[in-house]
Design goal:
241 residues, alpha/beta, Lysozyme-like, 2 domains, five-stranded mixed β-sheet, 30% helix, globular
Length: 241
């Protein structure tokens, strides 16, 4: 494949192993502006890219063909699959990481997600954070991103606590998050931090009973890792590609 009209980034290749998109990974750019982010995502020397860049004003620009493998995810896994780049669409939101996401940007993201999900048959559980598939290494789109808003629009998922056990069981919590899709080769405290970034960004302190109940609900309703490929000894996607 080569970059063509409407796809300014040269940083992509063929999806490996005949994979097609089954995930959408949401990022923030951690840069001062959408223009700066665009320049980097289109710079051959940077060796990074995403399929879409959404500016603060809601402008959504395609940078890489959706059928191609953009270089946005890096090392990590979801549901036991290590080459997330080959199995995903990457969406970058222009945001330095220290402020809320603008309303026009969120509205544009909702429209974009609906279209991508329809084109590739991706369900709400397939919309994840960069911090979900790379816990401890990545923290975007961060604690200011409104995941509940996406879930209410049918564009992601949100757990309910239901029955709450008498105590917090760290082993069960970790097992439930792995069943939901989080990497299996990550320690429980790192998984807790990633879980909180997405579902309870205000939470502090040790693992709580409500968090265990929420993790159990995620595992019960959306078990992405239940029939996943085995986790390899090392990440498949070890570099920027």
């Amino acid at each position: 494949m080569s970059a063509g009209a409407g796809f300014p980034s040269p940083n992509f290749g063929e999806r490996r192993g005949g994979l097609r998109p089954s995930l959408i990974v949401i990022h923030h750019t951690a840069m001062a502006s959408a223009a700066a982010a665009r320049a980097r995502l289109c710079d051959p020397a940077a060796e990074v890219s995403a399929h879409w860049l959404v500016a603060e004003d809601g402008t959504a620009e395609p940078l890489v063909p959706e059928a191609a493998r953009a270089w946005h995810a890096g090392a990590g896994s979801w549901g036991g699959r290590g080459d997330v780049n080959s199995a995903s669409i990457g969406i970058e939101l222009a945001n330095p990481g220290d402020r809320p996401f603008a309303e026009p940007q969120m509205a544009a993201l909702e429209r974009l997600l609906a279209g991508v999900m329809a084109r590739w048959g991706i369900g709400p559980a397939g919309v994840i954070a960069h911090s979900d598939m790379a816990p401890g290494r990545k923290s975007d789109p961060g604690p200011r991103f409104d995941w509940r808003r996406l879930a209410l629009a049918g564009l992601s998922v949100w757990p309910e606590a239901g029955a709450v056990a008498d105590g917090a069981d760290e082993a069960a919590f970790r097992a439930d998050l792995v069943r939901f899709g989080y990497p299996a080769d990550v320690a429980a405290p790192v998984l807790l931090a990633a879980f909180r970034l997405r579902f309870r960004p205000w939470a502090r302190g040790p693992l709580g009973r409500v968090e265990c109940a929420l993790a159990a609900d995620l595992a019960r309703r959306w078990p992405a890792g239940a029939a996943a490929l085995p986790i390899d000894a090392g990440p498949i996607d070890a570099g920027p590609h």
